[in-house]
Amino acid sequence: MLFSVLIFFVLYLVFYNYSIYEKSVPVFYNHSNKYWAHRVLDHQIANDLSVKYNGVELDVFFESDKSLFDVRHHGSFKDNSLSVYLSKINNNDMYFWVDLKNLNYSNVSSVIKRLDSITKETISKQRIIIESKDIKLLYELKKSGYKISYWLPSFNLIKSIFQVYEIRNDLENYTPDAISCSYHNVKFYSNKFPNYSIHCWTNGLDFKNDIGEIEKISKINNVRIILID
Known about the structure:
- By secondary structure, this protein is of the alpha/beta class.
- 36% of the residues lie in helices and 21% in strands.
- The protein has eight helices and nine strands.
- It has helices spanning 2-17, 43-49, 82-87, 108-121, 135-143, 159-174, 186-192, 211-218, and strands at residues 35-37, 55-63, 68-71, 95-100, 128-132, 147-151, 178-182, 198-201, 223-228.
- Strands 1-9-8-7-6-5-4-2-3 form a nine-stranded mixed beta sheet.
């Protein structure tokens, strides 16, 4: 029994550290300052933070009946328009990570149409990356010229053995501009996809007290963006 457990442990260690996909895609953001501000839902705060950070992450819901993106993390309609938000940004060099919370088959066409309108009026498509869990729908945005980030699930001792090969196939078929995950999972996905751009968030870490751990993540070559609370 002990021998079997040892064999499993060794094999799993090999699996955990072994690369399964080494292709890369053009990098969306490649700067020595990898730190972006997390969950910045107010344009004025974004302007204030632009002195320190090159980019911000924000959450949006697409409201089909109103044909607009509402900037909010959860809850009911806030009437906080993405179009207005972006139009109020003073720094023309600012980047934006847009976590699109409710992308689905019924709204993807309207999402693209509205994004096209917003980017014509406010900011270049090249300065925005759209994140979602659904790579097939994200690919529709990519075909329309948008940068996309594929949200990846948390590492699981059993599920990840199978999920990681599905992810590899998705990277091959849909070529997102980045993959995104929690900082807990960066090591695993960096091992699996060592040349693919990784964007991560650090929920639960304090920039002042946990700076050592955050800096360790920033030194991983293919980590491009780290969201800081």
